[in-house]
Amino acid sequence: MKLDYIDELNGFGDNMVRLFDFDMAESILFRDALINFISSDSIYLKLADLEFVEPRNCTLVLFKSNEDEGIISEDDENFFCALTVEKYQNMIQLLAPFCKKETKGYQFLYEVDSLTDFLFSPAGTW
Question: Is pLDDT above 90 for 14?
Answer without folding.
Answer: no
